Amino acid sequence: MKVRVTVMLKDGVLDPQGKAIAHALHVLDFGSVGEVRAGRVIELEIAETDADKARAQGDAMARALLANLVIEDFTVEVVA
Amino acid sequence: MKVRVTVMLKDGVLDPQGKAIAHALHVLDFGSVGEVRAGRVIELEIAETDADKARAQGDAMARALLANLVIEDFTVEVVA
User: Fold this and answer.
1) Which of A5, A7, A39, B17 could form a disulfide with B38, with the two C-beta atoms 3.0–4.6 Å apart?
2) What is the pLDDT of residues B10-45, one digit of tens each?
3) Which domains are seen in chain A, by residue range?
4) Closest to A78 measured CA to CA, from A69, A68, A59
5) What is each CA distance from B72 to B6, B18, B37, in whole angstroms?
């Protein structure tokens, strides 16, 4: 199964990458853009046929390696 | 409206970050993990009330700045 883990900075944590993107978009005349938050997405192929087990594995991997839980939140979706 | 742009390397483009994550997960005993692909997600607050227009803006911003279309694909979703 394919699992997608999305990692974003927690609300309230300063996001300099997002601020830089917002600034660049304003320079490019995208004036309607407000707050921008940047994050990571990791797609993992897991040798598992049960969606719940695949999701649980993705959750365990996010906690062990993919996310820094002090400053980041993550979500896990089974996509295929 | 809030728009989420997800940027991933195209299939066939070498993904060293994904390979490094896969290796680290194997070291951590997640043996069921196969291919791993890493990408970026950018959440943008757009001053627009029409979902189709917000999506079109996200698409234009991805083409102008957020994705390198030579080696990357992107998807745009309206999330709120």
Assistant:
1) B17
2) 999 999 999 999 999 999 999 999 999 999 999 999
3) 2-78 (3.30.1280.10)
4) A59
5) 10, 14, 12
Mean local confidence (pLDDT), B66-70: 98
Average pLDDT over residues B1-10: 97
8 Å CB contact between A21 and A30: no
Residues of chain B that touch chain A, judged by Cβ-Cβ distance less than 8 Å = 6, 8, 18, 21, 24-25, 28, 30, 32-48, 57, 60-61, 64-66
The Cα B57–Cα A56 span in angstroms is 35
B44 vs A19: CA distance, rounded Å: 11
B38 contacts A38? CB cut-off 8 A: no
